[in-house]
Specification:
Layout (H helix, E strand, L loop, with lengths): L1 E6 L4 H9 L6 E7 L11 E2 L12 E4 L6 H11 L3 E3 L6 H10 L4 E4 L5 H18 L3 E8 L9 H13 L5 E4 L11 E8 L5 E8 L4 E8 L3 H14 L5 E3 L1 H5 L2
Helix pairs in contact: 1-6, 2-3, 4-5
Length: 251
């Protein structure tokens, strides 16, 4: 049995994970971390991961906020535990902190835990350079009105994959305003926030007389929970280093 400490356990995704884990007989949640208090989730909840010093765990799963990162990494380094990071909106400094931690412990990080999104991301690695010369590239992402970071971590994941695949110089254009023609080297990124949209990402390759679209729609948060729990299974007793959804898809 792989024992999980779930950070952000009382948030929207934390609650979905708590419900979805019933479909994973090899996994159990032994403790939760959240700034709120709730005794109805079936496991003890603490306000700080430091209070979990006596909890036996095999992996830490984080679906919280970037500000919890340092304390989670410190705890995992002290306990030599793998960590699965599903939080988005990290700063450059925090991304460096994650990379540095992977030299000491196993770190799994993905901007999106959906298998479908990561398959699309792999397709983009193969087709972006081929299409770039004759197509303009735009990314549109849609999320609920409570999402804090913009553009989404997933939109940036897709955008960086496209940019890294193209040998020519490109640049990100986040939104459009003013009177100016589009420059071909731009990779457009547009964010929509409204209602209860779980998550939609669309990559458009617009050519002369034709349009190629790759689109993923998350119909339920459960798709992210399933990916996160699969990552916990995968990370059990892994060696130090950096891991991602690619390791799961290609294993």
């Amino acid at each position: 049995m792989v024992k999980i400490i779930l950070s952000g356990c009382l948030g929207k995704m934390g609650r979905v994970i708590s419900n979805s884990i019933a479909n994973f007989p090899s996994l159990s949640i032994v403790a939760g971390i959240d700034r709120n208090d709730d005794t109805s989730v079936g496991y003890p909840v603490y306000s700080d991961i430091k209070k979990c010093s006596n909890i036996e765990a095999d992996v830490v799963l984080d679906f919280s906020r970037p500000e919890t990162l340092s304390s989670l990494l410190q705890y995992c380094k002290e306990k030599t535990l793998p960590i699965v990071l599903c939080t988005t909106g990290y700063s450059e400094k925090e991304l460096y902190e994650i990379e540095k931690a992977s030299k000491e412990i196993p770190v799994f990080r993905s901007a999106n835990m959906s298998i479908g999104i990561n398959l699309i991301n792999n397709i983009l690695k193969d087709i972006s350079a081929m299409l770039y010369e004759n197509y303009d590239i735009e990314i549109i992402e849609k999320h609920h009105n409570q999402k804090v970071d913009s553009p989404s971590g997933t939109a940036l994941l897709l955008a960086n994959t496209i940019k890294n695949a193209i040998p020519s110089e490109t640049e990100f254009k986040k939104g459009r305003d003013g009177i100016c023609k589009r420059d071909h080297k731009e990779i457009g990124i547009h964010a929509i926030r409204g209602g209860s949209i779980v998550g939609e990402h669309e990559v458009i390759f617009a050519g002369q007389g034709e349009l190629i679209e790759l689109k993923h729609s998350a119909l339920s948060r459960e798709v992210f929970a399933v990916g996160a729990l699969k990552a916990c299974e995968f990370m059990y007793q892994k060696e130090k280093g950096m891991y991602s959804m690619d390791n799961i898809i290609k294993k």
